[in-house]
Design a protein that fits this description.
Layout lengths: L11 E6 L3 E8 L2 E11 L6 H14 L9 E6 L7 E3 L6 E3 H7 L4 E6 H8 L8 E3 L11 E6 L3 E8 L5 E4 L13 H14 L10 H15 L8 H9 L3 H25 L5 E3 L3 H4 L1 H6 L2 H6 L5 H5 L3 E4 L4 H12 L2
Parallel strand pairs: 1-4, 4-7, 9-12, 12-13
Antiparallel strand pairs: 1-2, 2-3, 5-6, 8-13, 9-10, 10-11
Helix pairs in contact: 3-12, 4-5, 5-6, 5-7, 6-7
Amino acid sequence: MTDTSTVTKPHYLVGDIGGTNARFAYVTPEHHRPLPLAKYRVADFQSFDEVMARLVSDWRELGLPEEGPEKTCLAVAAPPHLETISFTNSPWRFDRALLNRHLTNSSIDIINDFAAIARALPALSSADVEQIGAGVIESRQPMVSIGPGTGTGVATVIFDQAGTPIVIEGEGGHVDFAPITDMEFEVLKRLRARFGRVSIERLLCGAGIVNIYHAIAEIRGVQPEYSTPSDIGAAAQKELPLAAEAMAMFFAVLGSSAGNLALTTGAMGGVFIAGGIAPRYIDLLRKSDFRARFLAKGRFADYNTNIGTFVITHDDPGLLGAALCLGDKL
């Protein structure tokens, strides 16, 4: 139960809502770092209305202000500017009218989940990341994040002359997949036959691991044993050949895509890997061609040499970024 002496102070709600989990926290004007409130599995709720009803109940159970939050910032794995928010990788949908029914006294901002990740990047410490390979972070230079998880997110943060962070949103996870090796060309052929256009998200996410694994099995003429990304990852850690080859390709493609982003954005402030997959399999990432492919840019290989690449190990960078976005407007 929260100390009642603090209840009279303004409290703000932040959320990071993805395709698998929805995380919520609260902040106060004196404490800009998010304090845990609730975490829900998307699969456990049929609708976002159910989630909001549960959230309001959990808010009150913690002894937070009965009237609810004064301000709200929700980071969503969906285009945030549409009238109805439809999640790319989950069946949830909501609009502002639904939010207003549950958050009757709150102003509400909706941002892209990777805009929140990008906003968090300048606030991450060395304890919040694990570096992969060489390279450095140059202060006040563009920083970019790519996140393979349920889907693939991309966002960038740049800085004005005063050092104020400015987030550049986009849908970089849906750019075309460009194969490099002969095997990647063969995988592309099979994914193109299945999907038509093949974006990097068709490979760089949980379902993408399964796509790669089954494509390689077909190419090799062997029967695939696994059907989930966690089983494939676990098999790769045991060095089972087909799974190990699939995970190696996953991280190689991630390295190429991260290197392309570095070239595109001039990310001298670093490239940061977000999402739930990379932290779980850092051992496989380190053994892969991730960094080599990040650097393999022909005449511009030297451009990427000094750019640091990092895996974000912070528990909730999306909540941190949403809280910082709220703080920017106070």
